[in-house]
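Q: what sequence does this backbone want?
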């Protein structure tokens, strides 16, 4: 059963060791991979498709909603900062005027695709993309920011939980007969088995790769295996080992001894008889 096999395979792995290995591997790969070229590529894709303007529009819309939702808060802050001798109705007029101008400006930029603010934003973003590719200082700042993010406890916790999350997902999917993972695994196994049965070329390729892999494993690990066996045998106690062997194969050894005695005796008797007849 493919589901049981997947579950058994994950159970064989020690969570602590695998989790540490996965966390270390992910952290090392992220630190080794330069962040600036990747960020530059993402921004290039956004600029080429005018996605950056859509992001700006969404940001302007969100800012306008934020101002509207917190209008009373901003008015109260203005009242606190205004001199005591200024009448409240003056503060109201000043606040309403500034607030409406700000909201109108945000709406104007959001509605005009050719607004000067959008053009400046586009030029600055394209310039930043070029710096990411050509300016070492800009790339270094990005790398420093990446290192700070990777060193954050929340990120370390996330990377450490990758194995547990993946394992739980595999086990859950493997236990579900209708899961996509289980269906795909079963399909791959069946397709592979059918291909090996019907295609001699693939069968020969697989056999050749297995032979090559076995040869590599023997060449690579033969000395280690010999050392392991030798070290293990050297630690055995002679009397204890003899006793264990006797317990495991004692009856067979006794049978061999009896057979040897009987056969040897008969052979000796035959030889003696022949010698007497010939003398």
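A:
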């Amino acid at each position: 059963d493919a589901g049981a096999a997947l579950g058994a395979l994950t159970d064989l792995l020690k969570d602590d060791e695998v989790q540490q290995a996965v966390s270390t591997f992910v952290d090392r790969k992220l630190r080794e991979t330069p962040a600036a070229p990747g960020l530059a590529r993402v921004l290039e894709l956004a600029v080429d498709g005018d996605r950056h303007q859509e992001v700006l529009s969404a940001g302007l819309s969100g800012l306008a909603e934020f101002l509207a939702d917190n209008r009373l808060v901003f008015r109260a802050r203005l009242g606190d900062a205004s001199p005591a001798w200024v009448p409240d109705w003056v503060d109201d007029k000043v606040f309403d005027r500034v607030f409406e101008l700000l909201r109108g400006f945000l709406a104007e930029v959001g509605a005009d695709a050719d607004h000067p603010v959008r053009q400046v934003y586009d030029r600055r973003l394209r310039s930043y993309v070029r710096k990411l590719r050509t300016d070492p200082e800009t790339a270094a700042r990005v790398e420093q920011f990446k290192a700070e993010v990777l060193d954050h406890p929340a990120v370390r916790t996330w990377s450490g939980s990758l194995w547990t999350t993946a394992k739980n997902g595999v086990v859950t999917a493997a236990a579900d007969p209708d899961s996509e993972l289980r269906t795909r695994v079963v399909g791959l196994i069946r397709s592979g088995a059918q291909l090996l049965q019907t295609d001699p070329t693939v069968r020969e390729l697989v056999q050749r790769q297995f032979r090559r892999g076995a040869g590599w494993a023997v060449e690579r690990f033969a000395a280690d295996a010999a050392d392991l066996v030798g070290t293990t045998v050297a630690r055995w106690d002679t009397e204890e080992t003899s006793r264990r062997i006797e317990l495991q194969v004692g009856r067979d050894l006794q049978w061999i001894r009896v057979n040897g005695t009987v056969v040897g005796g008969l052979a000796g008797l035959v030889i003696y008889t022949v010698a007497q007849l010939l003398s």
